[in-house]
Fold:
Amino acid sequence: MIRIDINRLSDGQKLNSPVLDSRGRLLIGEGIPLNSQMVKHLKELGLQFIPIEVSGYEDINQLEVISRKVEMFMKKEANEIFKAARKTAMINPERIINAVDYVMNDMLAKGKTGIVVDDLRTNKDFIFDHLTRVCIYSGILGTALGLNDLRLRTLMITAYLHDVGLALIDDEDILSGSYVTDKPSYKIQEHPKLGRDLCARAGFPSIISRSLYQHHERIDGKGYPRGLLEKDITLYAKIISVVNVYDALTSPLPKRKPYLPNEALEFIMALSNSAFDKDILKVFLKKVVPYPPGTLVLLSDNQICVVKDCNNDLPLRPILKTYAYLDGGQVKYIDNPSTVDLKNNLNLTIVGQVDSAGKIIDYETSSISSNLENIDDEELKNDITKKISNKKIVRFKRSVKLIDKSKP
Ligand SMILES: [Fe+2]
Structure:
């Protein structure tokens, strides 16, 4: 599988996974040759990168932190919880706890830990996807922070419910009150309080309703609803606030394209001393996968590779499979791909993501610098620093015509 920019999809290419809506209904099936009508539909659904089958790269699969079946169950449950809250102004705690236990067990059984974006999310029913992903991401981050099972469960319940207050706000207000990057509307600012009251009425422990109430607070006191300072914000709220913003930025919304993981990281890093707890952020950066499996990347030695798998806690050093190389600005393809594990090849670094429209999406110097903190290996850190100071990456700021191998 290779992730292809939607604007470069052509007739006959095949999706390697189905596109489903938040209730698990099939929108476009896997393995079916795509036609222009289907591509148009995928664009309308807000998809940006599409995982397609490419000969020779069938062994590359999406990183599944939880199984699709469990993920779909979580989304359906979130939908039901919202519906019930709208109808009765009540939420059912048993149902919520069961769903979180289900996802927690699946996550622990899979043993994969990486905060990785899902290319096949659609812009329909954003909120149910969002609650599910914030719950999963919080679980990953909480585990990395060393929370025991009981605290992890409390964190994941809070994360799953964090925006449940939106159920009591009209859809129109939610869509028009852009609630993450811009100044949220007065009505949107009500949702932490509404969510807290729903939780309290359902009999959840006060740590859950309190943390939910605080998920838009910032450590500098400029958050809402109360403008609390760092010392008064719970650990759970601090964890959820980071993953909440990351997920909202990387999600397709009806009126906005998703940010690339790198761009979302830039955004979050810029707020490291004002909105987010520094220690949590440090662990978060280790867990975010900026180049998900299937991504085409350019290496410092001009090789173009496909990300095959992730090395735990080394987000910038994945395992790759060679694809092509740059020769004087021309792309030359490789007949026999080989594997390159960047963990063991410290002389190589990723200098950019190549999109299949032929442009190199630069991995900005600032972004590499901000991720340096994240790397424990001194030798590797020096190596990257040297690359930055030599400004070797500047020469990659040009467009390269990349011919799609999978096209006839
Ligand atoms: Fe929220």
Q: What stands out?
A: Confidence is low (pLDDT under 50) at residues 364-375, 387-408. The two ends are 17 Å apart (CA to CA).
